[in-house]
């Protein structure tokens, strides 16, 4: 039944359907993976989340598949080690062009069309994201990722939804050279710096899966068990490592899941300091 008091988003859609929980985080960092960005529902769901009372939404996006496709077009073969991209000097130009340019502006355009007050920036802008090269084998890849939230806070205060690409400024460089950083690491650093109420890793899977079934809740010990058994690896393992780092640094809640995680607080896999006993299946 629809009533006259039903709240609606700027595009006229009903406000967030809260099927699962009474909790409404005020500051949320949403890391949007590259593959899910093609979903036509993405912009609508982010706009609904941003329309909630006292909501402050920050989007950090990936786009690795598009970077890989462009590399191949240019005759550069993508390389990965442990789910993390190796980035040469030539690759960094491609990363900047795709992530801070094409991907960022396309996502901002979609959000604006849906009614969100979105603004696109790079992690290099305002030195929002900084990092260091800790392993030269990965080339221009930054680790030890840190965030300065000042610019992001200013944008949130005046009602904008910042949309941030994971390209960082190198802290050890006199010229502030750029670094490619893992989007999960960038989102984690920003969530920690903002003291976010929630960090969500949004991808094309409904959560952490075992034997095709979503695991509703995990703690760091259970994550180690899954990793040791090879249940999680590559990109999902990188997400879980980032989630544990965020948890240890004081982020209120971390979830991994699909698009519905943006508006349904019971969706996805919650990473917490304590979880029900993990069942080690044979």
TL;DR of this structure?
The chain has helices spanning 42-50, 64-73, 89-114, 150-157, 183-194, 220-228, 234-248, and strands spanning 27-32, 56-61, 79-81, 84-86, 118-122, 129-132, 141-147, 161-165, 167-170, 178-181, 198-202, 209-210, 213-214, 217-218, 254-257, 269-271. The chain has 282 residues and is of the alpha/beta class.
Keywords:
Carbamate kinase; eight-stranded mixed sheet; four-stranded mixed barrel; 16 strands; 23% strand
CATH-defined topology: Carbamate kinase
Q: In percent, how helical is the residue content?
A: 25-40%
- Number of E strands: 16
**SSE pattern, N- to C-terminal:** EHEHEEHEEEHEEEHEEEEHHEE
* CATH structural class: Alpha Beta
Characterization of this structure:
This protein has 282 residues and is α/β, with parallel strands linked by helices. The chain has a single domain (27-271), classed as 3-Layer(aba) Sandwich (Carbamate kinase). Helix content is 32%, strand content 23%. It has helices at residues 42-50, 64-73, 89-114, 150-157, 183-194, 220-228, 234-248, and strands at residues 27-32, 56-61, 79-81, 84-86, 118-122, 129-132, 141-147, 161-165, 167-170, 178-181, 198-202, 209-210, 213-214, 217-218, 254-257, 269-271. The strands form 4 sheets. It has an 8-stranded mixed beta sheet with strand order 5-8-2-1-11-15-16-14, with helices on both faces. The chain has a 4-stranded mixed beta barrel with strand order 6-7-10-9. A two-stranded antiparallel sheet has the order 3-4. β12 and β13 (213-214) form a beta hairpin. The longest helix is centred in the middle third of the chain and has 26 residues, at 89-114.
């Amino acid at each position: 039944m629809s009533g006259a008091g039903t709240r609606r988003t700027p595009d006229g859609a009903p406000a967030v359907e809260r099927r699962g929980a009474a909790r409404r985080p005020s500051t949320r960092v949403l890391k949007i993976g590259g593959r899910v960005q093609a979903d036509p529902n993405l912009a609508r769901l982010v706009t609904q989340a941003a329309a909630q009372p006292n909501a402050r939404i920050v989007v950090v996006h990936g786009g690795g598949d598009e970077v890989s496709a462009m590399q191949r077009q240019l005759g550069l073969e993508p390389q990965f080690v442990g789910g993390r991209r190796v980035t040469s000097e030539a690759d960094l130009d491609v990363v900047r062009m795709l992530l801070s340019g094409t991907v960022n502006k396309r996502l901002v355009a979609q959000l604006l069309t849906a009614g969100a007050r979105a603004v696109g920036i790079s992690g290099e802008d305002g030195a929002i994201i900084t990092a260091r090269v800790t392993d030269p084998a990965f080339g221009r890849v930054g680790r030890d990722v840190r965030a300065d939230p000042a610019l992001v806070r200013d944008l949130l205060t005046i009602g904008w939804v910042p949309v941030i690409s994971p390209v960082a400024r190198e802290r050890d460089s006199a010229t502030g050279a750029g670094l490619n950083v893992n989007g999960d690491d960038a989102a984690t650093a920003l969530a920690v710096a903002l003291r976010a109420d929630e960090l969500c890793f949004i991808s094309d899977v409904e959560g952490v899966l075992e034997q095709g079934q979503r695991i509703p809740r995990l703690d760091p010990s259970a994550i180690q068990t899954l990793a040791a058994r090879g249940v999680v690896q590559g990109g999902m393992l990188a997400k879980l490592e980032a989630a544990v780092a965020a948890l240890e640094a004081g982020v209120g809640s971390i979830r991994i899941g699909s698009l519905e995680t943006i508006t349904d607080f019971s969706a996805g896999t919650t990473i917490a300091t304590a979880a029900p006993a993990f069942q080690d299946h044979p």
